[in-house]
Structures are given as structure tokens and as C-alpha cells.
Amino acid sequence: xxxxxxxxxxxxxxxxxxxxxxxxxxxxxxxxxxxxxxxxxxxxxxxxxxxxxxxxxxxxxxxxxxxxxxxxxxxxxxxxxxxxxxxxxxxxxxxxxxxxxxxx
Length: 104
Prior knowledge:
This protein is an all-alpha fold and about 100 residues long. The protein has one domain (about 1-75). It is about 85% helix and about 0% strand. Helix 1 (about 1-20) runs antiparallel to helix 2 (about 30-90).
């Protein structure tokens, strides 16, 4: 999307400069100002696009951090449960029921 807009600005710039015949390409003030204005708009838009991309990367990084924290908490919870079962040598209820069922 951003590339399309940059290309559109570039196309407009090329169209406006292509309209001027080769004999009239001598830089006078109005043409130079128009080109300068187009370049300024192009630079402003490029900066705006860079800012949007940076914002997207920042949001994605924040989401990754939240997901990693959540995953870390789940791993910690599982490790605590495992340590508890190892320490008490008790089998979880569902597994105990299955063992009893198949042994009978």
C-alpha cells in the first residue's frame, strides 16, 4: 500500500516533468519550485510511512512479549505441578482412575 502511494507520487512527478518539452527544460523559478514541492511531499510521505511501519513493529514486539510472558507463566505452573507430584509421589486423579480401570 505504501509502495503504491510512493510510486503514484513518483508517477505524478514523472508525468509533470514529461509534459515539459525538452527545449523548455531550462530551470526557471516556477518549475524548480514545483519540483521542489513534489520532492518535499514525497519526503514527507516517506517519513510518514516509516513511522507507521515502526509503530507496527512496536505493536508486534509488545504482543510477542505478552505471549512469551504468558507462555513462561504456563511453563512455571506446569513445573510446579510436576514438582508437587514428584515430591508427594501421587499420581493425578485421572491417571489413577485409568490405572485402576486397566488393572482390574
